[in-house]
């Protein structure tokens, strides 16, 4: 059984409109939401074994903040250049390279690609937007990530900071 967590980066700062998009940092709200969402995953009994992130500053920062909550070595976060502002199809390229020994993976990326990919994964639910710090989770009964694309996925949950916790 494999579990995939798609996590959109936390809210970023627009204080400097001349700053390159790749270099935008998290804002105050983003720095608060990221650990809260990591805590929600922990509360669900989910702790990723592998974190893969776009190398953009806001995405790396989100992954590092969440890694701290999970006692995951921030230096072990795998940065994938391809995930920066990618299309949905790029996620599959990244996923098929994951070691079969890993059961739970968190991929940190950007819109619109992350929302498009979430909608590609399952017919059970359609979403308009994964908001910042949002998490979309699916599970599939496979032994190798190389089989992920063809496998039937089961929707687990969709959570985001402004969603009421029950």
Task: Please provide a written account of the structure.
This is Histidine phosphatase family protein. Pfam families: His_Phos_1. Substrate binds at residues 8-15, 58. InterPro entries: His_Pase_superF_clade-1, His_PPase_superfam. It comes from Chitinophaga tropicalis. The structure is a single chain. This protein is of the alpha/beta class. It has one domain: Rossmann fold, CATH 3.40.50.1240. Helix content is 28%, strand content 19%. The protein has four helices and six strands, in the order βαβαβαβαββ. It has a six-stranded mixed sheet, with helices on both faces. The longest helix has 16 residues, at 28-43. The mean pLDDT is 95.
Mean pLDDT: 95
The CATH topology is what? Rossmann fold
The percent of residues in helical segments reads 25-40%
Computed Rg: 15 Å
Q: Architecture, CATH level 2?
A: 3-Layer(aba) Sandwich
Task: Count up the domains.
Answer: 1
What are the secondary-structure elements, in order, as H or E?
Answer: EHEHEHEHEE
**Alpha-carbon distance between the two ends:** 26 Å
CATH superfamily: Phosphoglycerate mutase-like
DSSP E strands, number: 6
Percentage of β-strand residues: 15-25%
Unreliable spans: none
* Global morphology: globular
User: At the first level of CATH, what is the class?
Assistant: Alpha Beta
Which class of secondary structure composition applies to the elements?
alpha/beta
Instruction: Walk across the major sheet and give the strand order.
Output: 3-2-4-1-5-6
Describe the sheet with the most strands: 6 strands, mixed
InterPro entries: His_Pase_superF_clade-1, His_PPase_superfam
Protein name: Histidine phosphatase family protein
Pfam families: His_Phos_1
